[in-house]
Amino acid sequence: MRSQAPTRTSPTSASAAPTAPGEPALDRAAWTVEALRSVWRHQQSRVSDRIAVIERALAALAEDRLEDDLRAQAERAAHMLAGSIGMFGFLAASDAARELEVELAQPTPDRAPALAALAARLRSGVQEPVVLRSDTAAARRARRALR
Description:
24% of the residues are buried. This protein has helices spanning 25-62, 68-87, 91-103, 112-125, 137-145. The protein has a domain at 47-145. It contains 5 helices and no strands. It is mostly helical.
């Protein structure tokens, strides 16, 4: 007995109609956009928690009372954010997280204002909606259809 190729379903509902191989590009692009949005909705609170760790560390740094444990937690949070939020298209926020990761390896209180500005850029950078960045006409039509 031959096994059939698995079908894909919408990321938000297992009962949605499966999509078959050879489906129109518009349907694939729409599914991809919705899949990214679904994953992002599940990750938002984790992202916010990691940003909060960084902000706590920077507040302590500004008061010259940053302990190594919190510094290491913030550095790790920045590292994890740099990769994960970039995957969702938040490139400026990902760059800010990457800069914070480097700075948090050996932070000094005199850098606290600059690091706070990076943290603000990080937080504001993840507030925008997830958008699939593609130049294909099918992806543009899919984005319009999902609005």
